[in-house]
Amino acid sequence: xxxxxxxxxxxxxxxxxxxxxxxxxxxxxxxxxxxxxxxxxxxxxxxxxxxxxxxxxxxxxxxxxxxxxxxxxxxxxxxxxxxxxxxxxxxxxxxxxxxxxxxxxxxxxxxxxxxxxxxxxxxxxxxxxxxxxxxxxxxxxxxxxxxxxxxxxxxxxxxxxxxxxxxxxxxxxxxxxxxxxxxxxxxxxxxxxxxxxxxxxxxxxxxxxxxxxxxxxxxxxxxxxxxxxxxxxxxxxxxxxxxxxxxxxxxxxxxxxxxxxxxxxxxxxxxxxxxxxxxxxxxxxxxxxxxxxxxxxxxxxxxxxxxxxxxxxxxxxxxxxxxxxxxxxxxxxxxxxxxxxxxxxxxxxxxxxxxxxxxxxxxxxxxxxxxxxxxxxxxxxxxxxxxxxxxxxxxxxxxxxxxxxxxxxxxxxxxxxxxxxxxxxxxxxxxxxxxxxxxxxxxxxxxxxxxxxxxxxxxxxxxxxxxxxxxxxxxxxxxxxxxxxxxxxxxxxxxx
Length: 496
Hints:
By secondary structure, this protein is mainly alpha-helical. It has 2 domains: 5-181, no CATH class; 256-495, no CATH class. Helix content is 55%, strand content 1%. The termini are far apart.
């Protein structure tokens, strides 16, 4: 996306030096593919480049003005560099806590600790090319999320090729050029969940041993909220210029974040269950127990006091039998209703619960079977909802269903947070798209933000260890009955 050529020829030279003349060479093929004459897809070679390459050429730094308009603001790198904690992911390994954890786990050099690099930076494949701009210390940089392929970088950026690249379908940009389709809510959620939840195939899994060594607890994950509070370095559809919306085939009236909320909740459950299933299958083959990190941590790790709601909750299962985590199903239940799937999630939850209660720390074989069934259910829901954009007619209807979610006692802190995040996000989108004023509700919702720690850490300062202590304290203080009574007032306050 080079622009203002009279002042950026030096930057263009840098860009060409980094990525060669790929964009110019691709111009002819881009024109062919735009008219349906492209060649069959071939495996794309991997190239890992540094984030500075995206800024050096004058594209994603300091903002740009161009005619025709750029599809983005051009200041993405400035925003990421200043505020996004993903840029500190590797530094977490080299800080005081990170060094202590590596030592306890006997992992040694953080640059060689693949189990850590998988999420705190990147594990580079043997046959991949590492460009001179790549720095492992950048943590989770541009290349991790947008795609480690040279072909799309040159094609989308250079003046002579970007116009032709723009009109290609998102699928073609991804499959034939390697540009990850982060506009797709299911694909974005799966990418984010690979670290925020885990991914067996990619070697991403925070084990109980890692937690015992001091790794902060992974909180419940809700992709729309986490995307918004990164904070975003990209624009929502409604924030883009009208001409850009037209280029991308979108409308400013789309309920984009609510769509992400629904699809994302199904994908989050799917990825949680796939991880559980794979780990359970491995444990079954080896004759081992399930890793405790896959189960409900707070069932064991909580303060000891009486009276306690946890004593009541424990009666639902057998003493000493740890249940599965509940939070991944919280919003997925809503997604299932929205998708109007014929198969209910409830019986599948019961099957998984029974598998974890079959013997101490669960029966891995039964857990794997139940988790795979639930993952398949979630996958079907995600696919159905991905084809149902929330337009101005059906988008507002989501609010009423969200309010009903709090009318059943939430079993734990993370599940309650899912509801709080969903209500907060929906309310923000309602205000932005419809301009509906609900001052009493906004005040009411402000209480949830405090009760449930809905605001995620902002900026690149602050200690992960201290944040972990805060979250654990709030988990211990959480009482589902108090949350239930509070949520019972929500429908009335919403209408007032």
